[in-house]
């Protein structure tokens, strides 16, 4: 992997990130994300009366569930619908570079949205004493979880020309991946499946990191999950399978 | 320069390309003709590395487009059919992205974009979002994108569809200008375009080459029958038809149109190699009729095309 290889990814990434801010969708997206997140959090905050962001990060996976597929839905579907994919994939770039750049663009966009929500911990810190350790853990966990949703959504987007289908299928698949390790699923599952499902569920790893304990097991899980779907995505693009 | 050997492309049982072989020399402008769905775009998609062939190979300067994909792609500038562009970008922004991704040095980018804007006449629109451009301007942005990195090979898929006659001439001139130094392959179904711009033409149908050669040579390959259009004023239709039948060199004729006052237009098919103009004028003189129009028609590219791709 040389310098030119990385530079190509960087140029593609820049284009992807720019394309979010070229349309009003990005601003609407960030606006909705902040308003909904803040509203749902502060609605209960004064009732509970604790300076902790627990409540916020309990909500976040559910907010992400809708917002991540919204970020990824157009990434491939729109390229295919408009035909720009033919331009993009005949440039001297590898399919993997394009997939990775798209993922990175989505991740940085999500990161920017998350950063803007940092008004919450700062407000909390100003009205009471906030333990910053868990907050960082929670943000890191959110980024990993968001990254997993994005990788999944990007993969789904590569399978269709239709943004709406990409959104809905992405949402459903992400929901399943999140919920699969939850307690109420495990209760109904056959015994031998319990440890497997509990390991595969995106949610469990999120809550584990969000506690502030950064276990390499969880980090490796998220990285493997993301790379698996980016890899599958590359394979789909390679076969030009939508024709 | 471009060497295409036994190219096949199947989608399931559907044969899109069927054993296509041809080569393009450096500096040549190749016109790629064929009805819709003949396989023009498919061939281009394989040359540019967008699709992989089912069988066969494409080599550019001796490098296979599959195994040396990055190298061959760098040599090609490609304008896909229908000119796909990123509609949410502005023209300048888009060109800058193209320049960067094509690996133009940072300090040369501005200069190169300026040149391309000049070449393609984009100066008025560079700040506009692409989705506000007219079709003609879109086409030019597409061309600008394709020539940005000064490629050795330009592949243009129907670069003039949907343009008005003035724009067509402009784009054609641009292709000719570029084609002076570069190898150009372009597809079209406008036949006059081929005679106007190409050194070499290939007609394909159902994924096979049906004819190949210089545009004017193509006419001979079909053995195009010559026809003559004659407009004459005579006593009656029957009298003229009778007179025409007497000329031996005429294969067949048919009435095309008529005007007030016994003026009739005939399209006359001539027997191979014969020239009937003298016979016709003598005949008409003998009968004391008058010629309103006489015109010889060589088999045009249109006729050849229709003949070959029926």
List the helices and strands and how they pair.
The complex is a heterodimer of chains A (243) and B (310).
Chain A: H1 3-21, H2 25-48, H3 54-82, H4 84-88, H5 95-116, H6 119-127, H7 132-157, H8 163-179, H9 183-188, H10 194-200, H11 202-210, H12 216-238
Helix pairs in contact in A: 1-5, 2-3, 3-5, 3-7, 3-8, 5-7, 5-12, 7-8, 7-11, 7-12, 11-12
Chain B: E1 2-11, E2 14-24, E3 29-33, H1 40-47, E4 55-60, E5 63-64, H2 69-75, E6 76-79, H3 91-101, H4 106-120, H5 135-147, E7 153-157, H6 165-179, E8 183-188, H7 191-197, E9 200-205, E10 208-213, H8 215-221, E11 227-233, H9 237-246, E12 250-259, E13 263-270, H10 277-286, E14 290-297, H11 301-309
Helix pairs in contact in B: 3-4, 4-5
Description:
The complex is a heterodimer of chains A (243) and B (310). Chain A is an all-alpha fold and 243 residues long. Chain B is α/β, with parallel strands linked by helices and 310 residues long. Chain B is built from 11 helices and 14 strands. In chain B, the strands form 3 sheets. Chain B has a 6-stranded mixed β-sheet, sandwiched between helices. A 4-stranded antiparallel β-sheet of chain B has the order 2-1-4-5, with helices on one face. The chains are: A mainly alpha (243), B alpha/beta (310). The interface between A and B is medium-sized, with 24 and 28 residues.
């Amino acid at each position: 992997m040389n310098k030119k290889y990385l530079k190509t990814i960087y140029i593609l990434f820049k284009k992807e990130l720019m394309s979010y801010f070229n349309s009003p969708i990005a601003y609407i997206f960030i606006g909705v994300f902040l308003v909904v997140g803040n509203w749902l959090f502060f609605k209960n905050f004064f009732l509970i009366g604790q300076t902790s962001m627990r409540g916020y990060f309990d909500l976040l996976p559910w907010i992400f569930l809708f917002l991540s597929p919204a970020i990824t839905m157009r990434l491939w579907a729109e390229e295919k619908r408009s035909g720009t994919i033919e331009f993009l994939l005949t440039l001297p770039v590898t399919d993997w570079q394009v997939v990775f750049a798209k993922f990175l663009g989505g991740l940085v966009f999500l990161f920017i949205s998350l950063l803007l929500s940092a008004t919450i911990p700062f407000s909390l810190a100003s009205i009471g004493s906030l333990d910053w350790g868990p907050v960082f853990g929670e943000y890191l966990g959110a980024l990993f979880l968001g990254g997993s949703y994005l990788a999944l959504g990007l993969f789904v987007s590569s399978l269709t020309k239709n943004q709406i289908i990409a959104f809905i299928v992405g949402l459903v698949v992400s929901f399943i991946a999140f919920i699969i390790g939850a307690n109420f699923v495990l209760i109904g599952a056959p015994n031998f499946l319990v440890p497997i499902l509990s390991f595969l569920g995106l949610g469990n790893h999120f809550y584990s990191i969000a506690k502030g304990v950064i276990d390499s097991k969880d980090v490796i899980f998220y990285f493997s999950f993301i790379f698996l779907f980016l890899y599958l995505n590359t394979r789909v693009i390679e076969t030009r399978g939508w024709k | 320069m471009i060497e295409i050997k036994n190219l096949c492309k199947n989608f399931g049982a559907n044969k899109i390309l069927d054993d296509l072989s041809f080569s393009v020399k450096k500096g040549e402008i190749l016109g790629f003709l064929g009805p819709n769905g003949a396989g023009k775009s498919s061939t281009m998609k394989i040359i540019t590395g967008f699709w992989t062939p089912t069988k066969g190979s494409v080599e550019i300067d001796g490098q296979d487009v599959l195994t040396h994909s990055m190298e061959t792609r760098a040599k090609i500038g490609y304008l896909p059919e229908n000119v796909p562009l990123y509609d949410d970008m502005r023209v300048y922004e888009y060109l800058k992205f193209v320049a960067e991704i094509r690996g133009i040095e940072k300090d040369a980018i501005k200069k190169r974009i300026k040149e391309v804007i000049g070449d393609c006449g984009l100066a008025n629109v560079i700040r506009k979002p692409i989705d506000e451009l007219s079709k003609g301007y879109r086409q030019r942005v597409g061309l600008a994108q394709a020539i940005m990195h000064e490629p050795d090979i330009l592949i243009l898929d129907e670069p003039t569809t949907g343009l008005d006659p003035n724009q067509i001439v402009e784009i054609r001139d641009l292709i000719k200008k570029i084609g002076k130094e570069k190898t150009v392959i372009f597809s079209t179904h406008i036949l006059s375009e081929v005679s106007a711009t190409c050194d070499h033409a290939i007609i394909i149908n159902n994924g096979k080459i049906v004819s190949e050669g210089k545009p004017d040579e193509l006419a001979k390959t079909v053995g195009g029958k010559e026809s003559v259009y004659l407009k004459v004023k005579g006593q009656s239709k029957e009298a003229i038809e009778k007179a025409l039948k007497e000329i031996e060199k005429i294969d067949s004729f048919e009435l095309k149109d008529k005007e007030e006052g016994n003026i009739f237009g005939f399209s006359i098919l001539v027997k191979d190699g014969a020239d009937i103009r003298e016979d016709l004028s003598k005949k008409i003189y003998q009968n004391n009729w008058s010629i309103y129009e006489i015109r010889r028609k060589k088999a045009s590219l249109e006729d050849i095309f229709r003949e070959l791709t029926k």
